[in-house]
């Protein structure tokens, strides 16, 4: 590390409003920090309410009078395909920005997240000309039909965990629907969104259709949630902020919202599981229930596997785990680890910060975790795994569902009956059998319970950016 640290040139740090990069009205900027070192990468324009107002005005003009919503779906799709090609031609740049700002592994960004985003655009481009209403036979001599219309100007609020990917979870279906939009990336990860904005312009997406306002949540984000001229807000982030967005939406113009919030997703490993498969799968899980017959062997393997787990610079292709996204997350995760210790869980490995600088944390495994401990209940969003034992399938179901969240669940078993019963019984939006965190552009993603509502991904996600209009006209001359 040290002198070899990758420090790319940063081209886009201003707000993108009406097709132009502009300073914030206030002239203010904020620091974005390299989590490898804690050093400032660059200053980014700090958008606030006035900037959101300007962006919404541009989006409103583009919606009410511009060509984007009036193009045929096929024509919109063609432009989105071009946008996708440009994303693909700039994979390295986008992958670099996300690695730089939030410590995500460069190689994974380059191989999966960013090319996956291009394909997501293509998928929704293909959907753009397949959106249509229905023709209805009415009880009287009337002709009825429905129109599916873009809902209008949408606000899209993005978190830092998958900055480029979640940007497209929301932007791609909203573009397909014919909406215009104001995107607010997380203050931890503004750079990829601003970079992508210049590619949207190159692709021929008209000015005002896609605006990006970087800035903080309680200012720029809150201005989106309470804006009187935004017609839908799609949000991914914490449950607490999701609640405040829904409140703000209710208090302002009753705009519908869709929320993809926190999870505390269980991974349930049954006695018959292939232990190596369970090992691969458990890497991403935070709440791991292991059936008593293989518990000891599993614990041993999990601890041993950490020895091969390389922490370090996210640009190093050998590294498995980069730094946490920022100081706040870093401190929060260490706080959760302390809490776990205090509550009596046993640390099998890890448990502290790694290295001399930056926001690195050792992979941490807790055993003897009980249901009432905070580490078993609250989302940690870090390399911390809690291991718990169970005996029967009934107990596994009860424990998996013993959470206010319902984002996802993983099941590891070779027994089809167990897999079927678990997948029907666990109340979560996504179930992964013998795999984990498997997302796909055509598979709906989103939670139950306090993990939110309104799916991202999947063809139906276009619907939340549309509204149905019912049209009726008399049929005087026809008996039908
Ligand atoms: P996390 O804690 O994972 O960063 P947050 O929910 O705090 O998740 O942030 C997710 C996104 O929501 C970010 O873009 C953030 O700026 C934004 N945000 C935070 N607070 C608010 C708020 N009060 N209103 C609207 N958006 C907000």
UniProtKB/TrEMBL annotation:
It comes from the Eukaryota. GO terms for molecular function: aldehyde dehydrogenase [NAD(P)+] activity. It catalyses: octanal + NADP(+) + H2O = octanoate + NADPH + 2 H(+). It holds the Pfam family Aldedh. Keywords: NAD, Oxidoreductase. The keyword Oxidoreductase applies. Residues 22-471 form the Aldehyde dehydrogenase domain. The keyword Disulfide bond does not apply. Homotetramer. Belongs to the aldehyde dehydrogenase family. This is Aldehyde dehydrogenase 1.
């Amino acid at each position: 590390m040290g002198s070899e640290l990758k420090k790319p040139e940063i081209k886009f740090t201003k707000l993108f409003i009406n097709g132009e990069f502009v300073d914030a009205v206030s002239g203010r900027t904020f620091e974005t920090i390299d989590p490898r070192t804690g050093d400032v990468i660059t200053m980014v324009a700090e958008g606030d309410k006035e900037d959101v107002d300007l962006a919404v005005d541009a989006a409103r003009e583009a919606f009410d009078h511009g060509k984007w919503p009036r193009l045929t779906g096929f024509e919109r799709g063609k432009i989105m395909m071009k946008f996708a090609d440009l994303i693909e031609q700039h994979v390295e740049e986008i992958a670099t920005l996300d690695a730089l700002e939030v410590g995500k592994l460069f190689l994974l960004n380059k191989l999966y997240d960013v090319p996956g985003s291009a394909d997501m655009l293509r998928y929704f481009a293909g959907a753009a000309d397949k959106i249509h209403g229905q023709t209805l036979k009415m009880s009287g001599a009337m002709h009825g039909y429905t129109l599916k219309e873009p809902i209008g100007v949408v606000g899209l609020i993005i978190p830092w965990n998958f900055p480029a990917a979640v940007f497209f979870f929301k932007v791609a279906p909203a573009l397909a629907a014919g909406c215009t939009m104001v995107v607010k990336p997380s203050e931890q990860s503004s750079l990829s969104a601003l970079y992508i904005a210049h590619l949207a312009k190159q692709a021929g997406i008209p000015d005002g259709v896609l605006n990006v306002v970087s800035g903080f949540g309680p200012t720029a984000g809150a201005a989106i949630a309470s804006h009187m001229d935004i017609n839908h807000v799609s949000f991914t982030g914490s449950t607490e902020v999701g609640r405040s967005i829904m409140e703000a939406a209710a208090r302002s113009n009753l705009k519908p919202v869709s929320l993809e919030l926190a999870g505390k997703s269980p991974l349930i490993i049954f006695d018959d599981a292939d232990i190596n498969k369970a090992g691969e799968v458990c890497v991403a899980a935070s709440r791991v229930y292991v059936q008593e017959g293989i518990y000891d062997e599993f614990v041993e393997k999990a601890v041993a596997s950490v020895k091969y787990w390389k922490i370090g610079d996210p640009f190093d292709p050998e590294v498995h785990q980069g730094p946490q996204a920022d100081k706040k997350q870093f401190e929060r995760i260490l706080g959760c680890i302390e809490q776990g210790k205090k509550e009596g869980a046993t640390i099998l490995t890890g448990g502290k910060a790694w290295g001399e600088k930056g926001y690195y944390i050792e992979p941490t495994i807790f055993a003897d975790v009980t249901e009432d401990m905070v580490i078993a209940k609250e989302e940690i969003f870090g390399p911390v795994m809690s291991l718990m034992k169970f005996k029967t399938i009934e107990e596994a179901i009860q424990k998996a569902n013993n959470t206010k969240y319902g984002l996802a669940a993983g099941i590891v078993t070779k027994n089809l009956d167990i897999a079927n019963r678990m997948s029907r019984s666990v109340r979560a939006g996504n179930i992964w059998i013998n795999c984990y965190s498997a997302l796909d552009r055509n598979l709906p993603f989103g939670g139950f319970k306090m993990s939110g509502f309104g799916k991202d991904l999947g063809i139906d996600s276009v619907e939340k950016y549309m509204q149905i209009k019912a049209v009726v006209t008399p049929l005087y001359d026809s008996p039908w």
